[in-house]
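Hello, quick one for you while I still have it in my head. A protein chain has come my way and I'm curious about its shape. Can you walk me through what the C-alpha cells say about the fold? No rush at all, and the record is pasted right below.
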Amino acid sequence: MAIKIESLQNKIFKRVKGLNLRKNRDKEGVFVAEGLRFISEIPLDWPVEMFLMTEAFAEENGTKLFENRAVTYILSEELFSLLSDTENPQGVLAVCKKQQENKEKTWIKEDSFFLLAEELNDPGNLGTVIRTADASGVDGIFLSKGSVDVYNPKVLRATMGSIFHVPVYQNIVLEETAREMKKRGVLLYAAHLKGESFPYHLPLQKSCAFLIGNEARGLSDEAANLCDGWVKIPMPGQAESLNASIAAGILMYEVVRQRLN
C-alpha cells in the first residue's frame, strides 16, 4: 500500500530533499533516479530503497507499479516539484543504492576496453561519455579525483540510464590505475593534441584504454606521461580542439570499428 507524504517536515521528504547534496549522497551511499524512462532502466537486481510519485502520476499509472520492489510514497505536485531537478517533472523518482565496486570483476574480462578521465568537470560531458561508453561496450570507466560526481542529477540525466550498465569508479589515483593496467597488459593511450599517431593506426582489438583530459586544460603532463602512447584525432578544419565527450566518442568507436572487422 502506498504511503502519503503531506508535509515539508516529513522525515522521508527531508531526507530525499537532502540528497540534492553530494555529501549526503556520499554519506548514505544512495542517489536519486528521476523520470519513468530512467527508472525503467534500473535492473531488477539493483537495490532500490523507495519510489516517490505525484498524485497525478499515481492516478494515471496506479500505485502498485513498483510495489513489488520497494515502498512507494505519494506526494502532491507542489511537494514533488521541490524534490525534482527538472523543469517539467514526470512525477516519479526512485532512491537507489550506488554501484557496488568490484574492480577485480571489471579487470578480468578478456580483450578488455576501458576509459579513464582526468578531472572531467562538465556534468553533460560526463553523462554523454557514460552513455557512449555503454553503447560501445566499454568494460569500465575510471574518474580521477576532481571529476564531477557521477551521481550529480545532470550527469544522471545525460546518461539516459546507462549508469546502470557500465561500472564507474570515482576518485581513482591515475598512477595506480595505469600501473594496474600495465601489469595486466592493457595498453593505455592518452588523447593528446601532440599525439604521434591517429587512432586508426593503433592495435585496439586487444585490451586497451584511453585517457581523456579536462575540458579546458586537457591532460596534465603527469597524467599523459603515464600512458604507453599519445593519440590525436585528425582535425583538418580550423577548430583547435574537440569537446571532451565528442573526442571520447570518436576514440571509443574506433575500438568498435576495429573489433567488428
